[in-house]
Amino acid sequence: MITAIPAIDLIGGHIVRLAKGDFSKVTQYGSTPAEIAKEFDVLGFKRLHVVDLDAAGRKGRDNIATLREITSATSMKVDFGGGLRSDEAIERAFDAGAIAVSIGSVAIKEPEKAKRWISKYGTERFILSADVLDGEVRISGWTEKSGTTIHDLLNLYYPLGIRNVLCTDISRDGMLSGPNIDLYKDIMKAFPDCCLIASGGIRDVDDIRALDRAGIPAVVFGKAIYEGRINMKTLLNDINE
After folding, report:
1. Which residues are the active-site residues?
2. What is the DSSP letter of 76?
3. Host H or E run for residue 188
4. Residue 160 near residue 120, CB atoms below 8 Å
5. What angle do CA 180, 162, 129 make, to 5 degrees?
6. Half-sphere exposure of residue 138, counting CA atoms within 13 Å on the CB side?
7. Tens of pLDDT, residues 32-75
8. Nearby residues of 162 by Cβ (< 8 Å), 6 or more positions away
9. Is the dihedral of CA 32, 35, 38, 44 positive or negative?
10. Where is 50: in which H helix or E strand?
């Protein structure tokens, strides 16, 4: 059964969602990140995906303190991503309680650094993050074209043992327009043992069921939660059957 992973995106210590990765189109939600994380934990979710949009798009700011509050408040396995460009940033994320970190821009722009991190900490502590728009991976908070496809990226890191992959369809992210199932099926066809996490466009429980039927191992979703479009108990009953 598919693994359902709620998401918390952070700007200035607050929960937000962007529309198509656009920092000018931000919706902020009221509860504190730690409070929401506790709710997910009590409901029975085992994993949580946290993204630091400040660090991803605005150099000089981060939400490491908020990450620590989240991991201290819950028993969930928390992965963390956004703007992790240095050894210090990786160390701080792990020290704040992240069990794994997502790497995207560095994986493309500085592959030798990414490979060194993977060798030092182990493949299980990294999620290869690919934010895709029109077939191309975007980097630097989705603002730059990379000239690289997700297949190119996986072909580079698969020989190193990386299997955890987060793929976000930017055109659907935060839009509640439904997931790009064809994109995820294409990845799974080429890399059948990939631990793929689908992201972008999830509207409701039916979308998650559709991804499950397509054989996608995991899914991340955020806006549908905060807009009240997913009955969390129904979802958990589905995935625990």
Report:
1. 9, 131
2. S
3. helix 181-190
4. no
5. 40
6. 19
7. 999 999 999 999 999 999 999 999 876 668 999 999 999 999 99
8. 118, 123, 126, 128, 154
9. negative
10. strand 47-52
